[in-house]
Sequence to fold (651 residues):
Amino acid sequence: MKQLLLSGTAVVFCVTASFADEVRVYNWSDYIDEALLEKFEQETGIELIYDVFDSNEVLETKLLAGGSGYDVVVPTGTFLARQIQAGVFQQLDKSKLTNLDNMWDVVEARTAQYDPENAYSINYMWGTTGIGVNVGKVRDILGADAPISSLSLIFDPGNMEKLASCGVHFLDAPTEMIPAALTYLGEDPDAKDAEALARAEEVLAAVRPHVQKFHSSEYINALANGDICVAFGWSGDILQARDRAAEAENGVEIAYNAPNEGALMWFDQMAIPADAPNPEAAHTFLNFIMDAQNMADASNYVYYANGNEASKEFLVEDVIGDPAIYPDEAALENLYTVTTWSPRDQRNLTRSWTRIKSGT
Amino acid sequence: MQRVILIAIPYAWLLALFLIPFVIVFKISLSDIALAIPPYTPTLDDGVGPFFRALDFENFAFLMSDDLYWKAYLSSLRIAVISTLLTLLVGYPVAYAMARAPEEWRATLMMLVILPFWTSFLIRVYAWMGILSQEGFLNQFLLWTGVIGEPLTILNTTTAVYIGIVYTYVPFMILPIYAALDRLDGSLIEAAEDLGCSRLQAFWLVTVPLSKNGIIAGSFLVFIPALGEFVIPSLLGGSGTLMIGKVLWEEFFNNRDWPVASAVAVILLLLLIVPIILFQRNQQRQAEAEG
Fold:
């Protein structure tokens, strides 16, 4: 028995010892240049364990269950705000974040509405939610003047009926789709009352039979391979699909457009859970990410804008010069942000989302 | 003393692995959703008095008021019943053939039935996605043979869910039926044939009734996990496949509503326990009648 106890303690010690130089990061899928992960390990000698998710909801469930085991997670601003309220995160120790000066005050001012004074998080990437199309196929079906930058492409049942045979994917994220439906109706995208929700549900229910799948990451490959011709998704993901299709030279031309009725602008924030096993290494990781060159490498790879002013000089023209990624003044006018859903409204939201998806 | 220990072991097992988890789930089902870790209230930190006062049956009332749940329970029941019958149709002949096979072959045949368990369940279900998809092996084969002109849409439909459940659970049907048939006294069938039964009549009047216990055991082993199945409908089923296991997952992960998810789980358990108790009573009564 004593023997057993001894070896038991030995195991415990080994486990804690291995934690000391290990950092566990939980980020969105297709969201980083993997060369950066190796670079981090080489520079710091810290072993990096990198897992991915494709839904804020799943991330939040893991965080609220407690003991997720992750040191760095990347929720979107609206989710971050209520997770801070729930006591999920620890305040950042800014003395350890020497690269904090690189951050862009314009973005910081906007993320402060979710995380006052940016006390708990740093911005990783930001982007818009919009329409990705296979230009050739959509024009074949709807004609040369197909409304590829209008929400009517995906919310007008007439258009969707014709597009159904060639495949349409929607995000499996009610907090993205409901504001879009409200925008299409010309209403406040941030409305959360039951009546507005019911009207948005009607819009989505009417086109649902023509939606092949509700999924938040499959559409990148599906668009690039030409398996589907329309996806309502995240800007950088669709631009990655454009890039993959161009590399494959398969004749597929993908275009991304922020809807001209208005597009949702979101911010993905890196934060450290309160119960992170290795907060020290987590800070090292955040500081590494905030390095101007590293952040630029990440953006150049995933086609999302970042919140790092100093990184701009290292961005390739394809990224910094593309108004779909770094919107100019006029495009910025067209973007809106939304606030956090309260638990009560959240239940109505998810209920209507389940109804929409299951068609009941 | 020895007797007490012998009885205590299964009870301790039941207590640790069933009763305690159930009490925890039941408690959460009486709680309210909260924005905290864990995401429900009250917890015992609130003190014993307030803790008990805060519990109520609100979530169960909510389940009754929303027809989504009843539709999901009914649709799960239908899928579980139909797939149990299909599994029986596939499994019985296999078990029968195994029991009738020459003695020296049986161990090998048994091995072949168990062999798929050597590969992860998830990988085998993924393999079915590759077989059933539009560009999959099945469609390519059928197109090649000229049976169909257009690829069939099987993946992301309820048909694919049936195929997945039957494939996954058929060993659980085969093994108990095989065990029952293996014990069958061959002279009974000879006697039936001597007394004028045709082979088919002997099968229906002697073999099937004597393998009844195997059929019932196999059906329960398939029906119970199929009712709460989550992996198969989420990988092979489409958005039109409504199953309670998937609803439960969505309540838990997408809606982060643990109290409602727990209430769904409690009702699912009640749905399962009632037929199990009825089955047990029936068996007991039969044993008494025979005894």
